[in-house]
Amino acid sequence: MDDQLIALLERLNLEPSGVLSPLSGGDIAEVASLETRQGTVVAKRDDPQRLAGEAEGLNALHDALAGSALRVPRVLGQEGPWLLMESLRVAPRKAASEVALGEGLRILHAVTREAHGWSRDNACGQTPQPNAWLDDGRAFQCERRLKPLAAACMEKGLLDRRLRARVEGVAERLDDWLPDAPASLIHGDLWSGNVLHTDSGPALIDPAVYAHYPEVDLAMLTLFGMPSPAFFEAYWNGNRPDDWTRREALFQLYPLLNHLLLFGGTYRGAVERTLGRLEAESD
């Protein structure tokens, strides 16, 4: 253990009784469990600014979901490149977890902000995520999400001018079909790997929190997995938008561009197919 982790443990009055044991995941940051005399904690090592953004997001989610069946690990403290969090006991996935996840996300998304964005920039994976506030959600999706990612992908040679122009065309025409809406508090990176199943129900981890359209979280869940019908019944509660499939395609475009940027050209085909879905809807 390095000096900064030791200092953080001392500040929190935690006495280590074991060594750091790596946990699964942690493709970008180092994540480990640590036994202390006061109980098990999770230690995450990463860039201090990214960790600060994650800690702020975890606290916001924890407060919004207080009293619900959907859990969020408590932040214990941060020191430099170390973040300490509550450890949650992993358990097999249960059918009831799908309902609890749907109901919990509905509660989360009912929490709104006056504008779209967040009080600080954060990161989605290793990608910086600009969150400066904008009153209009369509403008936020265009100027803070799709256009910056398309430009970054083109700069790395992962998009050509034609494909970048298609992304920007979708972004600039959102006013034609997407209504403006209140900005919901969202997890921001809600692929299935960031839903942890515990002995007391589902939990959310590794957020990239901001306020925007709630379908951002739903589209991410369906991009890299498929929640059960029970999840959607609990979430929609009879109020599924008529244009859900179009919104799903729109809000899958940003994470696909992010995966293209982070992991390379194998995601280009998925970007093109998603653009095709959106362009077909506009015909």
TrEMBL record:
Gene3D superfamilies: 3.90.1200.10, Phosphorylase Kinase, domain 1. Keywords: Kinase, Transferase. It comes from the Bacteria. Signal peptide: none annotated. Pfam families: Fructosamin_kin. GO terms for molecular function: kinase activity. Belongs to the fructosamine kinase family. This is Fructosamine-3-kinase. It comes from Onishia taeanensis.
